[in-house]
Fold this protein.
Amino acid sequence: MKRILAILFALSLALVLFTGCGNNGAGETAPPPAADVDDTEAADDAGADTAAPLESVTVTMWSWSEPWTDVFMVYLADHPHIEFDHQFVDSGDYVTRLMTAVNAGADVPDIGWIEMGWRGHVAWIEGLWENLEAEPYNLDRNDMLDFLIPLATGVGGYIIGIECGPSPSGIAYKRGMALEFFGTDDPDELSEMFPTWEAMFQEGARILEETNGRVHLWASMGDLTGILFNQSDIPHVVDGRLNLENSVGPAFELLEMALELGIISQVDQWSPAWNASFAERDAIFYYGPSWMPTHVIKPNDPDGAGDWGIFLPPGGAVNIGGTLFGIPSMATNKIEAWEMIRWATFSIEGAEVVRDIMEYTSAYRPVYDIEGFYDIPDPFFAGQALLQKFAELSFHVHPRALIPYDSAVNGALWEGMLEVRDGMSVEDAIRHMEDEVIRQIPELQR
């Protein structure tokens, strides 16, 4: 355990983006507190014992997202014996603080957050997280959205957390520009118009020529590769050998094609210029995970109401980001933490509260059988029922399962992307990426 922790400290974490929880039949709900004694019964039997008040407990949660306090306060209103201690920890410092507490035998949170950027690392530390499929939790994975299961499964083969905000992604687009250059701003018609990436890229080349290089199809390289790199479920590592040529080679070839056509803006994703581009008319497409509208698009384009939409990409939807709610094995108040997690992420009542406060969909599959549950028009997206769209996208995602090398591989992919942008061939870039991963993890082979 200590050896693994030391390795974790030495590893550099991947850049943490906004996530599904950050910036962040009948459903099961948490059991109610002990019922009050009926006044009539008490009068008839004055000697009867009244229900003893539940012992007060404090559930701690470490996170970087304040709105989740509002969600849990709805639950706590019916559970007055629970005090909630929400401690704010920067996402970039989270793993270090958690591992320091574990190594020192100090207090850890009862509700721990497991962000996608470093999920593979912490999911592979044996014994760090509770098995939520075992007693006393008894989570039924059949009630979880299918695409979330491999993203929530740790080293023991069991579920270690529940996604607090599933992050299916389509393509976000500016309706006015789509209508101008494609003749339609309807999301379904756009999906039909672009059956392949090659067809989309050729349209981008046409637009670039017609506008004398002013309008790019994609706002940044990161927007495009965020989708391309996640559209395959082929593993990066097979039997101890790197498999990058198969897992991401086709995506790099598509990136190379887009770069040669010049259809990607040179703006860096997450830069000030990229943020400003949302309110400008220089690019049409961005990636569009479920957390993007609330946390990125609307704040960056406050006057853009009615000018945005989401459609299904060529090749299907992907998962981008996300955060699990898990319970560290060293936690103190596991049962109370579980009831809060289950209510918020794995019940119909909690899904309704999260929908209304966070504007997120749920990991709880039975919710999707309720007609109209997410059919809520969003005026900012021209009346598109945005949550319903993300609900639909959830059934088109085929994610790559977690591995303990994810951060090292993802860091190498970023470097390879920059190398291809600078003119390196895809074949050479893959060799360079393999070199970088093996440098960090010598036990892996080509």
Q: What stands out?
A: The first strand starts at residue 57 and ends at 63.
